[in-house]
Amino acid sequence: MSNVCSSSRSTHVTVEADGLHAKKDTQVGFQLLRDYRINKGLSFSVKERRQLRILGLLPPAVQTQEVQVSAALESLKRCETDLDRYIYLMNLLDRNERLFYRVINDNIQLTMPLIYTPIVGLACQKYGLVLGNPKGLYIPITEAGHVSEIISNWPEETVKIIVVTDGERILGLGDLGANGMGIPVGKLCLYTSCAGVTPRHCLPITLDVGTNNEHLLNDPLYIGLRQKRVTGKEYNDFLDEFMQAVVNRFGRYTLIQFEDFGNHNAFHLLEKYRNHYCTFNDDIQGTAAVTVAGIMTSCRMTNRKLAEHTFLFQGAGEAALGIADLLLAAMKNEGISRPEAIKRVWLVDSRGLIVKDRPKGGLTPLKSVFAHEHPPIDTLEQAVKEIKPTALIGAATVPGAFTAEVLCTMAQINDRPIVFALSNPTSKAECTAEQAYTATKGRCIFASGSPFPPVTVNGKTFDPSQGNNAYIFPGVGLAAALCQAKHMTDGVFLAAAQSLSSMVSQADMESGLVYPPLNEIREVSVQLAADLAKYMYVENLATHLPEPKDKNAFVRSQLYSTDY
Question: Most exposed: 270, 275, 319, 464, by fewest CB within 10 Å?
């Protein structure tokens, strides 16, 4: 309930914002209804309307939040396309923040695909049409030298989590430039809906360094700089200025999550900043954690240890290499040496199987770690036949890469083949859930990057798991923000994977799930944050003092509430 104080001569009202433990001044009257963080629409009581000078500015009916949620869901049903539904939800956020998150929280399976993958990809492609009220900061490289000034324009003082992109590799859609803002906006919506992070503690940022997408450069509705991407020293200096400006404004322990940067910059920036700032790359580390969690669950389902599996990746970019590296750490945790663990991991890129002295070349230092002594193989189909993997992991946005032949071969060499088709959006998936279950006659353990409907094979219905990073980054970010973490180590993400996998029940696994049901994601994220808080204090990563004795109670006491 809002805490209202006003007098007949007052021009401002002080409102205690729920879950914030802070106060905010805003104008009374008509302007109050324009403040999305305070506006309750028809839920203002008659007494509140009189005190806040909005009597007559609303119809006389007084509605509960539950009625407002029902109305919002009915409006969603009336939208003709998923893009229309995305636009409706963003407009709802512009009007009434708490109602927006109540709708999302109560209907997460319906709304998550709308505010994030796969529909956010379409929204980014058409961002010039869906752009609403400002939801974050655009920092163009043409303002290099003035980044601190731009960041100082953000009205909130207590930002704790930033999601930043330069728009170069948006999902599997490529370079979308400034249109990529839909990604940080969507990610931070999930921070609040999945983990209860207070919205005003979140800041989406797009670093506009140009785009090499000719279609966008010629599009009159494109919202970004009309120039080719800046690279090299000018780009790196701009990123340095940005990182320092964030710390100067919001503090040393502000979590900075990098999202959808190109491969060549993603690894470089992670290594450059990880020991100097509280930062991580979700495409590398978040994807790795959620995938390894699914593999850990798959190990329980197959009664085999990690080191007893052989992993073959379709792809050798950010996601695949991040997963592979975390797999090595997980196997080391089981007592397997790094050289022995590497023998269990194979990668296929656009030039074929990654092997030593490959005639086609293309071996970067990061790929070379996984280059084995083996004759060259050009195709995934042949690699599956010769390597005989127990787990096949797709992360290269090559649609249809897991052909019927590949899937049937996996079923021939394994009783329970593990098939993770992680590329998204849906149009980039290596295979569908139906294709995987059908080709393997219902024996595969399946997960995908985008959601698929249940599949029935031989009379048994399977619920395909979605290996969504939303199982990881909201809980990780909540823990980092509350504990004021110094750095985000690989150990944090291994601990996150272990925590997530441990929450999968026997009943979940029997229905085919390798992750908890999506409708439990709020509780999953909170529990994961509590587990990571314990880890961060043990590993001396946390700086928040005094150390809370009950980490679970500490986390739960800080959660954002959607109640009026």
Answer: 275
Distances (CA, A) of 12 to 16, 53, 257, 534: 13, 11, 36, 42
The single residue of 40, 86, 101, 116 carrying the catalytic annotation is: 116
How does DSSP assign 489-503, residue by residue? -HHHHHHHHHHHHHT
pLDDT in tens, 149-193: 999 999 999 999 999 999 999 988 999 999 999 999 999 999 999
What is the helix (H) or strand (E) element at residue 455, kind and residue range?
strand 455-457
| Two tokens, residue 468 | 């969504």
pLDDT digits (tens, 9 = 90+) for 486-512: 999 999 999 999 999 999 999 999 999
Cα dihedral sign, 11-94-160-65: positive
Q: Which two tokens stand for residue 343?
A: 């023998």
Q: Is 187 a catalytic residue?
A: yes
Q: How long a stretch of residues is the chain?
A: 564
In this prediction, residue 1 carries a pLDDT of 37
Which one is catalytic: 135, 160, 187, 367?
A: 187
Whether 4 shows a pLDDT value over 50: the answer reads no
Instruction: Specify which residues 349 forms β-bridges with.
Output: 352
**H-type helices in 380-489, by residue range?**
380-387, 404-413, 433-439, 473-483
3-state helix, strand, coil in the chain (%, to 5): 50, 10, 40
Task: List pLDDT tens digits, range 409-465.
Answer: 999 999 999 999 999 888 999 999 999 999 999 999 999 998 899 999 999 999 999
- What does the buried/exposed string (b/e) look like for 125-138 if buried means 16 or more CB atoms within 10 Å of the residue's CB? bbbeebbeeebbbb
pTM for this structure? 0.92
458-478 pLDDT, tens digit each: 999 999 999 999 999 999 999
DSSP string, 315-367: --SHHHHHHHHHHHHHHHHTT--HHHHHTTEEEEETTEE-BTT-TT----HHH
For residue 182, count CB atoms less than 10 angstroms from its CB and return exposed for 0-12, middle for 13-18, buried for 19 or more.
buried
CA distance 402 to 417: 13
